[in-house]
Amino acid sequence: MGRLLLVWRLIARDLRHRPGEAVVFLLAVTVAGASLTLGLASDDAVATGYAKTREATSGPDVVAVTTAADPTAVARRIADTPGVAAQSDPVFAFDTYVEAHGRTAHSSVEGRGGSPSVVDRPLVTSGTWVRPGGAVLERGFARALGVHVGDRVTIGTRDYPVVGTAISAATSVYPWSDAAQGPGPSDFGGRIWLTTADTRAAAKDTDAAGVHLIHLKLTDPAATQRWQKSVFTPERRGDVWVNTHNWQGILRTDSAMIRNSRPALVVGGSLLAVAAVVTLAALATVRSARDNRRAALLKAVGAGPATVTAVLLAQYLLLTLLATALGLTVGTLAAPHVVDPSAGLLNTLGPPDANTVTAVLLLAVVVAVTGALGPALRAARTSTVHALADPAHLLTRHPHLNAVTAHLPTSFLLGVRLLARRPGRAVLASASTAATTLMVTALLTWHAELDVRPDFSRFGPIDVRADQTGQVLLAVTLAMVALSTLNTVLLGWSTAVQARHTLAVARTLGATPGQVTAALCVAQLLPAVPGVAAGVPAGLALYWLFGTVVVPPASSLLAAALAVLLTVGTLTALPAWLHARVPAGRALDAGPA
Question: Which of 223, 238, 430, 474 has its CA 20 to 30 A from that of 454?
Answer without folding.
Answer: 474
